[in-house]
Amino acid sequence: MELKAMTGKHCDSIAFNIFLVGGIFLLWYEAFFVLPSYEPDTVRYVWLHYIVAGWLAFSIYGNMYKLKTTDIAFRTRRDDYGIVNKPRGWKYCRMCLMDTPARSHHCKVCKVCILKRDHHCWFAAGCIGYHNHRYYVVMVTYMVIAGLYCNLFNSDFVTSVTGGFSVMNVIWFLGPHVGWLLGYLNTYELFVYTLSSAGIIMTVLFIWLLVIQIMQIRSGQTKYEVKMEIHNYGMKQQWNVEEVFGEHSFLVFLSPFLNSALPGDGIVFSSAD
C-alpha cells in the first residue's frame, strides 16, 4: 500500500511538471515561433492572437492554481461535526480511522478521504472533489479550446513544412522519430512533426476528458458512481450544474477567482430516491 502511494506521488510529480513545463513551452512555441513565421499579409490582427494566448494561459493556470490550493479533504470526525448517529451512506474508513460522509472516498496517493471524490488527476497532482470540481472542469474546457485553436492555427504552418497531405506525411505524424532515423526527415521537420502530433493527441485526450465530465454533470454522478451504476444523487439538471459550478453557474468561466458559492458543504446531499 505504501509502495503504491509512493509510486503515485512520483507519477504525480512527473505528470504535473510535464503539464506545467509543456504548457509554458507550448505558449512560447505558438506565440514566438509559429506566429512570427507567418507573413504579415497572411495573419492579420497579430495582437489579437497574443491576447487570446494570454487569456487561455490565464484561464488554464489560474484554474490549476485554485484547484490545487482548495481544500477538498474530510478531516473532521462525525461526532465533532455534531452528528451522533451515522447517517445513511456514511461509512468507516480504515485508513483515516473514522466515519466519512456519503460520496467521499479515500485516496491512496493523497492519503486522505476526499469529499465527493471524482478521481485523482495526475496532471493536477491531486484529487478532484466537491470543492474544486469547478476548477477542473473549467480548466479542461480551456485546454480543449487551446488545443483546437493551436491545431487550426498551425495548419498552414505545418503544411508549409511537411509539404501537404500525403500517405507518407500521415506515417511521419504517427512516428516522426522513425522518419528521422531513416533519414527522411531533418531535425527541424522532426521537431515540427513531433509537436504537431503531440498537439493532436493531447487535444483528443482533453476532448475525451471534457465529454466524460459533461456526461457526469448531466447525470449528477461521480466517476465511481458511474462505474457502480449509483443514481441516488442525480437531481434536476440545473441543480446538478449548480452543485459543480456554484450559484453563478457558467460565469465561473470568466475567471477562476470569481466567488461562486456551492449549494452545500460536500457532506450532506439530497437523495433522488
Describe this structure in words.
The strands form three sheets. Strands 1-2 form a two-stranded antiparallel ribbon. It has a two-stranded antiparallel ribbon with strand order 3-4. A two-stranded antiparallel ribbon has the order 5-6. It is built from eight helices and six strands; from the N terminus they run H-H-E-E-E-E-E-E-H-H-H-H-H-H. A hairpin with a 4-residue loop joins strand 3 and strand 4. With 273 residues, the protein is mostly helical. The mean pLDDT is 87. 54% of the residues lie in helices and 7% in strands. Helix 2 (46-69) runs antiparallel to helix 3 (133-162). It has helices at residues 2-34, 46-69, 133-162, 167-174, 176-181, 187-219, 223-227, 237-245; strands at residues 91-93, 98-100, 105-107, 112-114, 119-121, 126-128.
The string of secondary-structure elements, in order, is: HHEEEEEEHHHHHH
- Report, as a whole number of angstroms, the end-to-end distance: 36 Å
Tally the helices: what do you get?
8
Q: Helix/strand/pairing class, anyone? A: mainly alpha
Brief write-up:
It is built from eight helices and six strands; from the N terminus they run ααββββββαααααα. The protein has helices spanning 2-34, 46-69, 133-162, 167-174, 176-181, 187-219, 223-227, 237-245, and strands spanning 91-93, 98-100, 105-107, 112-114, 119-121, 126-128. The mean pLDDT is 87.
